[in-house]
Write a structure and sequence with these properties.
single chain; alpha+beta; D-Maltodextrin-Binding Protein, domain 2; six-stranded mixed sheet; four-stranded mixed sheet
């Protein structure tokens, strides 16, 4: 999944919250339980998120951490081999890989038979089998304007009959789920056919994402809110089901007894044999319970890990010197059996300007100059060296690391040049007219730029660097502080001037990073609210091409347009360092699978 996340996290963006909860067992309670069952009951994976979840409707999810939970509840058609590198597509709910026509316009997908949704009152007390019709219904939800699905861009302007269905819903005010769509059909109970009006090589990768996982219409009809979303009542066909939820505090998942018979994979690379030792062939999930708590600040998360209260933690860059010597664990951590898993994240990090804003927005030369000067004046070198403690590399392109077309040799996209920034502002009339050290707008009115951020320690440090950088070029900067979910709503409504985000990729196709500036995504993914016909034309052309030099050349032109108009400051690519407790078995980082808790085992 590709999703929007705050730039406040040291390694991963996402949504999180507040408290640690540990599974406690009372001896008297266990005394009446068989020994094997008691041991199994104690097996719990303990996780902490840095920001609060937003909800678990798969078609409506727009953040990484909610997606992690949803991926445990809803199973898509495909996933990636847990061990294979580079990423290898394998069937999940599907029986086999998709059958694709020679012209890359038609996909035929056959489902495994006998897959079931988790039990729910919406099914009237009867087992509910997954069918091709469930996928057709769920993908229609992506097209429903009322749902406001972030991944609608995957289907719009491509799916045969899809745009007409969207237009009809906008005219009538309601999406007709019973009306047929020529390009989206259930050929029989277990076969789906999807047709596009142009070649679409990358569609297979989208079928691994939670946004394309199935929901049951009965559940949506029974539990939907005013936006036709079911954020608070997830019922899927995946390895876990939601057992308990205290919003922004605690989420508990339990094994879904209706899940298919899935087994721990056997690795083909001898280097992975140690990870899979004693696990290969065992029924998944290995651990029947996952407890997720919300701890917003990085230091308390690390302390919770050190106390053994959580099983793994994404080490914040600002705390790296406490734990690492360069890229290795300090001896005190290594001696405890703690493991370190490091990788460059497949994420695009950026700070956007709202082009609809009267101060920083617009397409006039002086407006572009203001944005470009602020980008030039932001001290990214200090951000990497001090705030990230070297746990990052300069951002060089819109295509993130690990995605197709990413060039690791490309130089940094934007350079720190405060002298050039001051000269550019002078040239376009942004001058300090009253001698207070801050510039005014060309018409003499005060120039004040407001940047959004969350109220945590990492964002506070980032805000201080932004303030210092902008003071150095004479731009007065203030900050609006809100919780992450509130900022998401404000961004979608176009109410923020500036905000730093990340877009983590769960597939190797970089298309969604470029969709972030597509004008038809305004109000959903395009928080910068860019309206540039040339960019739209290039983006639409890129979607018709397979991987390769021609598409990469178009991506380079789109990147040049973004830079020329000063739409984003592209931030550093972060190196994630995961610390894993010695009791955790089977842990392996994958560039596109975030956490697959069903593959983890724990001792005790």
């Amino acid at each position: 999944m590709s999703s929007a996340f705050p730039n406040d996290r040291p390694s991963h963006p996402g949504r999180a919250g507040r408290a640690i909860f540990m599974l406690a067992a009372v001896a008297g309670t266990l005394s009446c339980v068989p020994v094997a069952a008691a041991a199994q009951a104690q097996k719990t994976i303990r996780v902490a998120f840095p920001v609060a979840e937003s909800g678990f409707d798969p078609q409506a999810i727009a953040d990484n951490y909610s997606a992690m939970i949803a991926q445990a509840i809803f199973e898509p058609l495909y996933t990636y081999d847990y061990f294979a590198r580079p990423a290898k597509l394998v069937p999940a709910a599907a029986e086999a890989l998709p059958e694709v026509s020679a012209d890359l316009t038609t996909y035929t997908i056959r489902l495994r038979k006998g897959l079931r949704f988790a039990d729910d009152p919406a099914f009237g007390g009867k087992p509910r089998e997954l069918t091709a019709g469930d996928f057709v219904y769920s993908w229609k939800r992506l097209l429903d304007p009322k749902v406001r699905a972030y991944s609608v861009h995957v289907l719009e302007n491509r799916l045969v009959g899809g745009d007409q269905a969207i237009a009809a819903a906008r005219r009538s005010g309601a999406f007709d789920y019973d009306a047929p769509i020529e390009g989206l059909k259930a050929l029989d109970r277990y076969t789906i056919r999807v047709r596009f009006d142009q070649p679409y090589f990358g569609f297979r990768h989208w079928l691994t994402t939670v946004q394309f996982a199935p929901v049951a219409r009965e559940v949506v009809d029974r539990h939907k809110d005013a936006s036709s979303r079911v954020a608070e009542h997830p019922v899927g066909t995946g390895p876990y089901r939601l057992a308990d939820w205290r919003r922004s505090q605690k989420i508990v998942l339990e094994a879904n007894p209706a899940w298919r018979d899935a087994r721990y994979p056997a690795p083909t690379d001898p280097a992975d044999a140690t990870i899979a030792k004693g696990l290969a062939g065992r029924k998944l999930p290995l651990v029947p319970r996952v407890e997720i708590s919300i701890i917003e600040e990085a230091q308390p998360r690390l302390l919770s890990f050190e106390r053994g209260e959580i099983d793994f933690v994404d080490l914040p860059g600002d705390l790296a010197p406490n734990v690492l010597d360069g890229d290795r664990l300090k001896p005190s951590y290594a001696a405890r059996g703690i493991e370190l898993h490091r990788q460059l994240e497949p994420a695009l990090n950026f700070t956007y300007f709202n082009l609809d804003d009267p101060v920083v927005g617009g397409y006039a030369q002086e407006k572009i100059a203001l944005r470009r000067a602020m980008i030039m004046g932001h001290d990214r070198d200090t951000e990497i060296r001090v705030l990230r403690n070297g746990q990052a590399v300069p951002g060089s392109q819109i295509s993130p690391p690990w995605t197709e077309g990413h060039d690791p040799k490309r130089p940094p996209l934007q350079k720190y040049d405060p002298a050039g920034a001051r000269a550019l502002l002078d040239r376009f009339g942004y001058r300090d007219r009253d001698g207070d050290g801050y510039r005014e707008l060309p018409d003499g009115r005060p120039l004040v730029v407001e940047k959004a951020s969350t109220p945590n320690a990492t964002d506070r440090a980032s805000d201080e660097l932004w303030k210092k950088s902008m003071d150095a070029i004479g731009v007065r900067m203030t900050f609006v502080k809100q919780k992450w979910p509130d900022l998401v709503k404000m961004a979608e409504a176009g109410k923020l001037q500036m905000w730093g985000l990340g877009w983590i990729h769960s597939i190797p196709d970089p298309d969604s990073s470029y969709a972030l500036l597509y004008s038809k995504q305004i109000g959903m993914m395009n928080d910068a609210r860019l309206r540039l016909p040339e960019y739209d034309r290039l983006y639409e052309a890129s979607r018709r091409l397979p991987d390769g030099a021609e598409r990469n050349a178009i991506y380079a032109k789109m990147t040049d347009l973004m830079r020329a108009y000063g739409v984003w400051e592209v931030g550093p690519s972060l190196i994630s360092s995961w610390l894993v407790q010695p009791r955790v078995k089977g842990f392996k980082r994958h560039p596109f699978l975030q956490h697959r808790w069903q593959y983890y085992d724990v001792e005790g």
